[in-house]
Amino acid sequence: MRILLGHHIESDGVRRRRTFLLGPLPRFSIRRGRMISIRRLQPADWRSYRDLRLRALREAPDAFGSTHDAEAARPDALWAARLAEAAASAHECPLWAWHGPQPCGLVWARLPADEPRIAQLFQMWVDPQSRGLGVGRALLDAAVAWARRAEAKWVCLDVSTSQTAALSLYRVCGFKEEGALHPLREGSAVMVQPMRLDLAPAAPLAPARGPD
Q1: Predicted structure pTM score
Q2: Which helix (H) or strand (E) holds 85?
Q3: Cβ-Cβ contacts under 8 Å for 58 (sequence gap 6 or more)
């Protein structure tokens, strides 16, 4: 994966190095003197990933098929292995968002072994304190850019119908409803809408014609 190394002056005056994903560039913005950046999770990040994931499950229990109690019971070795396996795979792309010095969002992109042309998105979440800053769009842009580089033809996800802000974001980004609603998990009254983004390249423009 190509990366761009740069620097940003924080509000405290400290010059800090930043690592940016390329290909096309994710979306960045400066809010309150701090940059929003998207980074790939590395094996050494497993504790921070665990904590952020558990925060997401606790804050938005109706947004995920898994539950806080189920994942909180997992041993540390499993959390570490999850990121180690992703780092060793060309079919996994776990991303997190940072608002200045704080992680504030997650998304995980995956190419299933049996459907390598269909990228699936999971674990999409933005911390409530960072919502409205473009974090969700930046995460989505980075995940879709990875799927394009992996030569996926579609990006698929499920979103709870109660998550109106997420539904609006996906629609703005070109996702369309695909298929019937289904329960979030067994026994849940929350319904989920499958959505899909077509990554097929646009048809080339016809060559310009000279005068007849």
Answers
A1: 0.80
A2: helix 76-87
A3: 68
Confidence of residue 116 (pLDDT cuts 50, 70, 90): confident
pLDDT of residue 200: 77
Q: What is the mean pLDDT of residues 86-102?
A: 95
Task: Let me know: does 83 contact 94? Beta carbons within 8 Å.
Answer: yes
Q: How far apart are CA 11 and CA 13, in angstroms?
A: 5
> Token pair of 208, please?
């310009």
Give which of 111, 125, 128 is closest to 64, Cα–Cα. 125
> For tokens 């780092």, what's the residue?
87
Structure tokens at 56: 């997401």
Least trusted range by pLDDT, from 23-32, 102-111, 186-195:
23-32
Determine the Cα–Cα distance for residues 44 and 30; give it in Å rounded to an integer.
Answer: 27
Structure tokens at 137: 């769009």
Computed on alpha carbons and rounded to an integer, the radius of gyration of the chain in Å comes to 18
Cα angle 7, 51, 25 (rounded to 5 degrees) comes to 35
Token pair for residue 200? 């097929």
pLDDT band at 212 (very low <50, low <70, confident <90, very high): very low
**CA–CA gap between residue 152 and residue 145 (Å, rounded):** 10
Q: Where are the alpha helices (DSSP H) in 88-189?
A: 135-149, 164-172
Backbone φ and ψ of 180, nearest 5°: -80, 155
